[in-house]
Amino acid sequence: MKTAKLVIGIISMVLSVFVLFQSCAAGIVNSLEGSGQVSGTAGVMVAVCLIIAGIVGVATRNSTRKGGTLTAAGFYLVAALFGGILAGNYTDLYFWSFMAWAFAAVFIVDGFYDDAVWEESRWWQQAWLITLALIVFPPAGIVLLWISKRFTVAPKIISTVIFALGFLIILGNLGGVFSTTTPVTADSTALPAANATTTTSNTAQPAAEPAPEKKVYGLGETWTVDGQFALTFTAASLTDERNQFSDKNPAQVVILSYDYENLGVEKNFMELYISSNNFKVIDGAGVMAAIYPASTSGNPQETPIGARCVGAQQAYGLVNASGVITVQVEVYGNNYKSYPASFKLPIS
């Protein structure tokens, strides 16, 4: 795999420069928006790990010892971990993390694959196939590892732990996507079947009860999801501040102030964190408002069970001057379940 390690090392070094520039831009956006996300910092860490891994991989590609190969694999795994967990709104970082994961698989297999051990040459025991299986579908790759005689027991155990954990993380992310899917329910207005018998009765049929209206919360009202979290908007205040570096020219700038409490949302990758990513703000004319880089006095914080975040703020620019705004909120609780709510907030 000397050629593969050389190519991957060169790609890593070039890619690290591109990721670094993207990360700087993501960090600036996070700072201006006051979102509290660390995707820019995570991207810088990924870029650093990529360039170190690339240099080590290229420098040690011809070495008969495996230390350099496994060191490069370690840095690729760290890059994949940082990027996959902390990407946030920097969505490209998920792709770069997957590439780091793939590069790590190549170096791990090369580091543990013993060419000196005789083994009947069968297609399912080739290093390239084991590597591909570990990248695309780790359970199959783990099986191929264990039936191969070219790996000793210790490398098999280490590789199994690494790739099993990676596979579980991938499944967890997919579970979060599927858990938000709205189940299909039967249509109560469907017409009766063509062969159904029509009957009459002089007994009055009770009228169908209308569906209860969804509650719309107001300023100072607390939206509570039992056993999960509670959220209260405490103010929607106008500010005269305008950012000279912003290309936006809003009719009004409104600062939303809110508190939230973690009643039982267990930590997954991070504690309960309610930010602008959970809000959609609509002005009085029904036009979507955008985040505006105005000064705020408080940021949302990761909040463990039993704790409260008080005084979090986010500024929004309204296209139309309004006296009331609508805030649609969507917060994820345990098992990635989505909880929506709507607020009508008077502007003061």
Protein described:
The protein is built from 7 helices and 9 strands. It is an alpha+beta fold and 348 residues long. The protein folds into 2 domains: 176 residues, no CATH class; 131 residues, Immunoglobulin-like, CATH 2.60.40.1240. A 5-stranded antiparallel β-sheet has the order 2-3-4-7-6, with no helix packed on it. The protein has a 4-stranded mixed β-sheet with strand order 1-9-8-5, with no helix packed on it. Helix 2 runs parallel beside helix 4. The protein is elongated.
Short description:
This protein has 348 residues and is an alpha+beta fold. It has helices spanning 2-33, 39-59, 67-86, 92-112, 127-136, 138-147, 153-178; strands at 216-217, 222-225, 229-238, 252-262, 279-282, 290-291, 308-318, 324-332, 338-346.
Number of alpha- plus pi-helical segments: 7
Approximate shape: elongated
Low-pLDDT windows of residues: 173-203
The percent of residues in helical segments reads 40-55%
Please compute the radius of gyration using only Cα atoms: 27 Å
Q: How do the SSEs run, as a string of H and E? A: HHHHHHHEEEEEEEEE
- Strand composition percent: 15-25%
How far from one another are the termini? 66 Å
Biggest sheet: strand arrangement: 2-3-4-7-6
